[in-house]
Write a structure and sequence with these properties.
14 strands, Rossmann fold, 2 domains, binds aspartic acid, 324 residues, single chain, alpha/beta, 8-stranded mixed beta sheet
Length: 324
């Protein structure tokens, strides 16, 4: 009998499963083409780490994923983790919206078993593809006893991140991701986790959700018209996240429309259009009825707001924002 840990690898597409017509030009390719068994077969050394099962859940570019996919993925991961025959789950994913899916999973999956997500910046047949090493690192991390109770971990380019606060900061570099202001959770050497597990626990049961309310992120540039805000509300947005200049500064022209929206019961969150850094509370929040996102990137604040609206629990949002 094998004494190796038993791990389910759930593939969802992305560049890690992408193929380029010309391996020398890895910037042009189709995402989500290589299937889950082929992804594993490309890294024979995985067999020394774990007893693996592969499953194809989606075969999509992650820019085509949305709330219905997050819900389906969370339900699948929860089911897998409830199986006594499985010790951990690894999810392969596109990098573009990894931060949304990872954060949703963090809020919807409560487990001590390791859940590790990985991705790649170069397609599977690129001359120097990063997917095989990232997948190896993800499986290795999923077998490490220290990964237990860390919630959702993400590893790429030799670095390990907690899901909360994760953000893609670069369009092309292999180390495209960053964590929140506390930095990464660890390094794959070992692998070693040098940050404690996040305090955030799973708060929602994905099986109780079908879709999520519409929440839009509005990018506020110098001189942007607040007509953007009106347009989003007319299109049916039930909440807004504003990616504001700097540390969440509200331009004068936006103050009236924001105050009217919040008075009408539309939650409006102040985030930043800067790629990193936090947005803390400001007297404007009391004056305008807004809520600062703290350490969350706008993408994850949107997920938090969608869940709070779906659960009709404004307190849930404050709880999510307060979590370190
Ligand atoms: N567009 C791809 C995706 O997110 C990018 C990647 O995976 O790196 O699916």
């Amino acid at each position: 009998m094998s004494a190796l840990p038993r791990i389910l690898v759930i593939a969802t597409g992305g560049t890690i499963a992408g193929l380029a017509p010309s391996p020398a030009e890895p910037g042009v390719y189709a995402a989500g083409v290589v299937d889950a068994p082929a992804l594993l077969a490309a890294v024979p050394a995985l067999g020394e780490l774990a007893e693996l099962r592969a499953e194809q859940l989606f075969a999509l570019d992650s820019s085509d994923l949305g709330p219905a996919h997050w819900i389906a993925l969370a339900c699948r991961v929860r089911l897998a983790l409830s199986d006594p025959e499985l010790d951990a789950v690894v999810v392969t994913h596109g990098t573009d919206t990894l931060e949304e899916s990872a954060y949703f999973l963090q809020l919807a999956v409560d487990t001590v078993k390791p859940v590790v997500m990985t991705a790649a910046m170069r397609p599977a047949n690129a001359l120097s593809a990063d997917g095989p090493a990232n997948l190896y690192d993800a499986v290795s991390l999923a077998t490490a006893p220290g990964s237990a109770s860390h919630g959702v971990l993400v590893t790429l380019g030799g670095t390990i991140f907690h899901a909360v606060g994760l953000r893609k900061l670069h369009t092309g570099r292999l180390d495209a991701f960053a964590g929140d202001r506390r930095g990464p959770a660890g390094s794959t050497n070992g692998p070693e986790l040098f940050r404690p597990p996040p305090a955030q626990r799973a708060l929602v049961d994905p099986a109780a959700l079908t879709e999520l309310p519409m929440v839009e992120i509005l990018h506020v540039a110098a001189g942007s018209s607040p007509a953007l805000l009106e347009a989003a509300l007319q299109a049916g947005a039930r909440g807004l996240v504003l990616a504001l200049p700097g540390n969440g500064t509200v331009p004068q022209a936006w103050r009236g429309p924001i105050a009217r929206a919040t008075a009408a019961g539309i939650p409006v969150m102040r985030a930043s259009r800067c790629g990193s850094g936090a947005v803390g509370r400001h007297p404007d929040d009391a004056a305008l009825g807004t809520l600062a996102v703290g350490d969350l990137p706008a993408s994850q604040a949107r997920v938090a707001l969608m869940l709070a609206l779906a659960r009709q629990q404004p307190a849930l949002l404050r709880q999510l924002l307060a979590a370190p």
